[in-house]
Design brief:
By secondary structure, the protein is mainly beta. About 0% of the residues lie in helices and about 35% in strands.
Length: about 100
């Protein structure tokens, strides 16, 4: 699932068992909330852009493409000057740090 643009949002959605990343949101002030990403081959939820809100989500057992390589985050944020905010349930993903930045877990 991919959304983009200023203030784009994903809410109450499920992305499971995808061959890449489960949920991808990009743009300024994007939001991913109350969604679940599990069993995706790469990353559960990826957000790119300033001032994102990522909250109330679950990201579990993502990133085990072809076995463990310790690179599969539950939630991964990039491309920001103003850090993303939110609290989420993230566990059992291939990368032991679970979230980037860690404050999202």
């Amino acid at each position: 699932m991919t959304v983009g643009g200023a203030s784009a949002s994903v809410k109450s959605s499920t992305a499971s068992g995808n061959g890449q990343t489960g949920i991808v949101a990009s743009g300024a002030s994007v939001s991913v909330s109350s969604s679940t990403a599990s069993g995706n081959m790469m990353i559960g939820i990826t957000v790119s852009g300033d001032a994102a809100v990522i909250t109330g989500d679950r990201a579990e057992t993502n990133g085990f493409f072809g076995g463990s390589d310790l690179k599969g985050f539950g939630i991964y944020a990039t491309g920001y000057t103003t850090a993303p905010v939110g609290t989420n349930v993230v566990r059992g993903n291939d990368d032991p740090s679970e979230c980037q930045p860690a404050s999202l877990c």
